[in-house]
Every structure is written in structure tokens, then in C-alpha cells.
Amino acid sequence: MNPTVSEAARLLGSRIRGERLRFAISQMELAELSAVHFTNLGRIERGQANPSLHTIIRIAGALNLDPSVLVAGLAPDLVPVPAHRVTVADLIRAREAQDGTAS
Q: What global pTM score does this model have?
């Protein structure tokens, strides 16, 4: 069995699966409605795929949801940390230090 991509992917997949089951439709039916291959939808629901923005929007549309419902609360700490992590605050501090404008 393939491991999940991240906790964020697992949560997204769980939300999609929950909505699909709420409507009592199969993966095949949701896949057809959202123009996503059914094997990819299965991988997404299990958290084993990292769907593109377009795929998330198509799935949400097929479920009559705003895509924000599927991604609400998903935060950076739920995805793997890159080897090199810099935030916009770090960038601004570095620029200010370089310019000599640091407070």
C-alpha cells in the first residue's frame, strides 16, 4: 500500500470521500462528473495523490461545493517541510538587514 503524500492530502481525500458518501455516489460516478480518472480519484481519497488546483475545483464543482470547503484549515504544517524553508517575513528581514533599514 502506498503511503499518504501528507497529512493535508489525507484530510483533503477524507473530505472528498465524506462528501461523495453523503451523496451516496460511487468513485466511478464522481470521477465521471468531475472529469477525473477513477483510479486518480481513489488515490486522492486515500491521500496518496497531490491533486492540482484544477482537479480540486472540478471535484468540488461536481459535489456542488465551494472548493474552500475541501481545503479549509489546511495549513503549511500539514505538508512536508522543504529542506530550505523561507517565509516572506524572513525575506523582508533579510532585505532590511542588507539595506541597513532593520529596526
A: 0.79
Contact status, residue 6 vs residue 49, Cβ threshold 8 Å: no
Distance set, CA 24 to CA 17, 20, 40, 63, 95 (Å): 10, 6, 19, 11, 54
Q: Which residue has the cell 468531475?
A: 34
Answer whether residue 83 shows pLDDT above 70.
no
**Whose grid coordinates read 459535489?**
63
CATH number of 7-99: 1.10.260.40
Map grid coordinates 523561507 to a residue: 86
- State the Cα angle at 76 between 73 and 78, rounded to 5°: 75
